[in-house]
Amino acid sequence: MPKNRTRFTEIVNTFARYGFGEIYNRGLGRQTDEEGAVSLRKSFEDLGPSFIKIGQTLATRNDVLPEAYINELKKLQTSSPAFSFEEADQVFFEEHKIHLDQAFDQVSREPLATGSIAQVHHGYTKDGHEVAIKIQRPHIKDELTRDLNLFMRFIELIPVAFQGIIVDPIQMVRDLRESTLKELNFFDEALAMIRFKELNAERTVIRSPELYLEFSSEHILVQEYLEGIDLTNPIRLEDAGYNLSEIAEQFLKATLYQVFEDGYYHADPHPGNIMIQDGKIYYIDFGIMGTLTKTHKNLLFKLLKAMVMKDIDQLTHLVMIVCRVHGEVNEIELHRDVGQLYNRYLTAGFYSIDLQEVFQDLLRTALKHQLTFPNEYILLIKTIIVVQGIAQDLDPAMDFMEILKEFGIKTQKSLLQKDLNVERLATHAGRSLYTYLGLGQKIDQALNDLNSDRTTVNLTFRDSKKLITLINQIVNRMTIALLLASIIISSGLLASNENTRTANIGLFFFVIGIVFAIYLLLSFIRSRRD
Questions:
Q1: Closest CA to 136 of 79, 219, 211
Q2: How far apart are CA 310 and CA 304, in angstroms?
Q3: Pairing mode, if any, of strands 113-114 and 118-124?
Q4: How far apart are CA 248 and CA 34, in angstroms?
Q5: Are 263 and 297 contacting, i.e. CB atoms less than 8 angstroms apart?
């Protein structure tokens, strides 16, 4: 492996040769997008597997690259050369101190598939189980880490090299390094498989292959070999007796369950990673997984609701919340552009919307206003676009946005019901009671501080009558809430009594308390709207 200085010189010379760098910016003139895209793709190819991986990842970033570059870099998906069986065997031996032919009953010498990070060999275990053996490309972690760091150094030294092509290229490479290096630890992928299997254990359609942990490690992953039907092969699916519309809807809803309910989803659902076997949807290759926090999911629900309600103000506000800001934003112009996007795509209805076109326009609009979407949302957008494309190829009549809208509303209601269960209400009531019980002491302390001149308070009353009314409302509500909390907790204790009569009385007052608590909560919500 060449030393850093030699490799850095190679990187600079390669980019310069294809029109990027100091030579290019000194007067050779700027290439068109099409010419520049071809040059960038050739640069990555010449620099080898690590840069091919960088280019493949960039091909998914519609938010930072123009469309011409995206389309050209997608050609890198088939550019990775295979490595020899002897090299694969050496990687396996270094991990397990045993050769492939000794660990397995049979292993194919030619790979089933080859990627920029790894290649897959077909084999059989000693007890006859058919497996796929994924082996990491030798030295790829060291090479990729080195090249990502040198690529960032190149951009820092020659910041104009990608001017007009990439917004904030340094941040882009940082994001790229973080997401790419996660894929290099196959043990993390094994843990992702285990978590995915656990989350989907109760679902009837979603499946994943069995994992062979005894053979898996940081650079090796062994899993059950599957021979299902590719989702992009409708003729084979129909010949096997499958209803394409049902398969399309099941696949779409499988993704939506993962996103909206689990907040943990398969984020690389290209056709080679999804197949149908025995009526089940099997996901394979868990190198790229998406994670959404509760905050992310809430923002998604709000975005969906704003779209349905045609609330341009809220849509604009949410875009500002979600995006990274790289400069001063003219919110009036942003509001106008978001409104134009909405009118262009959504006013005619949700049917047959091309999500890829919508999101590309949204990303371009964001870039225009020096806004970029965080990785979590870009990954989700990319996943949803791929899922929509596969589903609508199977069933062109599918109304994707209508299903998405209905699913989102249904899931939000389900989550709300979970938040309002008796156990949660009792917990919140207990916390409220604890807070209110300490409130008197805090008020007494504050009055003592005022009385002893330890505190100065400046008040300006613009409308004293309204203020007094508001204070009375707050005090009344606090008093009612305190009483309800006391009733719920005390009746809950009575309900657990061994005496049946006492328990029934306690249960009766517990239910009454819950009913009044919900009524009080709804009155708070109504008053906030007013």
A1: 219
A2: 10
A3: antiparallel
A4: 35
A5: yes
SS3 361: helix
Using a 10 angstrom Cβ sphere, with 0-12 exposed, 13-18 middle and 19 or more buried, the burial of residue 362 is: buried
Summarised one tens digit per residue, pLDDT across range 215-230 is 999 999 999 999 889 8
Confidence of residue 475 (pLDDT cuts 50, 70, 90): low
- Length of the chain as a residue count: 530
What does the block give as tokens for 503? 């328990």
Smallest CA-to-CA distance from 233 within 356, 393, 354, 382 is with: 393
- Give the contacts of 469 (CB within 8 A, at least 6 positions apart): none
Q: Please report the beta strands in 252-329, taking only residues with DSSP state E, as ranges in sequence order.
A: 264-266, 274-277, 280-283, 289-291, 324-325
Q: What is the DSSP letter of 30?
A: P
The rounded distance, in Å, linking the Cα atoms of 261 and 199 is 10
- In degrees, rounded to 5, the angle at the alpha carbon of residue 376 between the alpha carbons of residues 375 and 379 is 80
**Dihedral angle sign, alpha carbons of residues 358, 360, 362, 364:** negative
Query: What does the pLDDT look like over 79-125, one tens digit per residue?
Result: 578 899 999 999 999 999 999 999 999 999 999 988 878 999 999 99
For 305-364, write each residue's pLDDT tens digit.
787 777 888 888 888 888 888 788 888 899 999 888 888 776 655 555 666 677 777 877
Residue 59: how many other CB atoms lie within 10 Å: 21
